[in-house]
Amino acid sequence: MGKVCGAAALAQGYAVAHGEGPGPLPRNGKEFFALVDAGDLAAVRVLVGYCRRFAHLIYNLQTTLDVEAFAIGGGISAAPAFGRTLASEVARIYESTYARRLGLAAPKLVTCKYRNEANLIGALAHHIAQAS
């Protein structure tokens, strides 16, 4: 999932969309979101497209599994622009489908309690489970 849904995928998407334009390309999510926050139109377009694809994944999982919530963690959860854009895209998709008209639950997004540390805690829990 990280290659599709992680912040590094955003930086890579920006590099593809931006080409060899002026200025350095972002090397990670933090640099990418600095471009978004600065109003870089290419970065904003990449973010919207990324969140749209991510929202489709969430919507498909919601309609298939009817989960209680989708917890967003890792470094990407620290970027307010990501949370706003993803929530907007999830709502847009939900409103444009029959799910709303049929009374099906809308996907609920929550931020992991430990945000950026969530993936590290999960990796540690996996390591401890494997060692037992």
Q: What features would you highlight for this structure?
A:
132 residues; mainly alpha; Nucleotidyltransferase, domain 5; two-stranded parallel sheet; flat
CATH class: Alpha Beta
CATH fold-level name: Nucleotidyltransferase, domain 5
What would you call the structural class? mainly alpha
Mean pLDDT: 87
Distance between the termini: 26 Å
The tally of strands reads 2
Question: How much of the polypeptide forms β-strand, as a percent range?
Answer: under 5%
The total number of structural domains is 1
Evaluate the radius of gyration: 16 Å
Stretches where pLDDT falls below 50 for ≥5 residues? none
Largest sheet: 2 strands, parallel
Number of helices: 7
Secondary structure: helix percent: 55-70%
Order of helices and strands: HHHHEHHEH
The global form is flat
Strand order of the largest sheet: 1-2
The CATH superfamily turns out to be: ATPase, nucleotide binding domain
Give the second-level CATH assignment, the architecture.
2-Layer Sandwich
